[in-house]
Design a protein that fits this description.
3% strand; globular; 3 strands; 3-stranded mixed beta sheet
């Protein structure tokens, strides 16, 4: 499907986080470092899972898929922001903006669904430990990942269609460091009330349902853990899902923070600053959260590092 520009507008302006050239240089160095750490950390985690046969179990397979999603998620927005900071340019083409909107929604939705799948994996592991490998067989794991990707693809297609139908009357200045569809809806001169309702409906369905699934899974998990008599048994059971719970809180917590800061602040740029946590910090921290709390992953990573050295 060819992108259809209904407006004649060939490019947009991303206002970014600051107009101060000295601060832009500082931000470039900071964000480049964070992006490189994100890429390296997540790729090392994927390599550790692939190279170690002991990690070829559902939990780590989902970890590696989440890491790949984090790399893709960060790559959707960060490189363009770095280029604009380095060249002191603010422009992005219509096609580039459309691509950002599409892929951003794809990977945000995919991350949300993968976290839900991982919560179900932990539910089965703790509540049905004897049947874990039977229930979470390779066919089901592959199917869960495929369904998650298909739903995310559908979501991104809906965002693509909404964006491609917007019309803009003049030079468009987006108070953000990437093309955010909610900002574009506010800046469009076409009638957007129906599109706004559709966007919030999509967000509620594809954001609320995964979160509900995670909350249900952890309700069952906590209930099961409380039935364990020994404290050591409770700690051991809870430690298996501790990393996932931290990542869930980080993902949804920063997302909620972005929404609240955008809703309560009169300055759109403050929402853009809050989005840094969501788009840069969370993907960077995820591999550290999983590896630092997991002996199997740490040992696999050390073996990889020793081979390289």
């Amino acid at each position: 499907m060819e992108p259809q520009n209904l407006t004649g507008v060939s490019e947009f302006l991303l206002l970014g986080l600051s107009d101060d050239p000295e601060l832009q240089l500082l931000l470039f160095g900071l964000f480049l470092s964070m992006y490189l750490v994100t890429i390296l950390g997540n790729l090392l985690l994927i390599l550790a899972v692939i190279s170690d046969s002991h990690l070829h179990i559902p939990m780590y397979i989902f970890f590696s898929n989440l890491s790949l999603t984090d790399v893709s998620f960060s790559t959707t927005t960060t490189p363009k922001m770095l280029v604009n900071l380095q060249t002191h340019s603010k422009s992005i083409t219509y096609v580039g903006c459309l691509a950002q909107v599409t892929f951003f929604s794809l990977f945000v939705c995919l991350e949300s669904l993968l976290l839900t799948v991982m919560a179900y994996d932990r539910l089965v592991a703790i509540c049905h430990p004897l049947h874990y490998l039977v229930i979470m067989n390779p066919l089901l794991c592959g199917l869960l990942v495929l369904v998650s990707f298909s739903i995310s693809l559908l979501t991104s297609l809906l965002h693509y269609l909404i964006m491609s139908q917007l019309t803009f009357c003049a030079e468009v200045e987006i108070p953000h460091f990437f093309c955010d569809l909610s900002q574009l809806l506010n800046l469009a001169c076409s009638h957007t009330s129906t599109k706004n309702i559709l966007i919030y409906f999509i967000g509620t369905i594809f954001g609320g349902i995964p979160l509900s699934g995670i909350l249900y899974s952890y309700t069952r998990i906590v209930s099961s853990i409380l039935r364990i008599s020994s404290l050591s048994g409770r700690y051991k059971a809870f430690s298996t899902c501790g990393s996932h719970l931290v990542v869930v809180c980080l993902f949804y917590g920063t997302g909620l923070g972005v929404y609240l800061s955008s809703a309560s602040s009169s300055s759109p740029r403050k929402g853009a600053v809050a989005s840094v946590m969501y788009t840069l910090v969370t993907p960077m921290l995820n591999p550290f959260i999983y590896s630092l709390r997991n002996k199997d992953v740490k040992s696999a990573l050390w073996r990889i590092i020793s081979r390289i050295a």
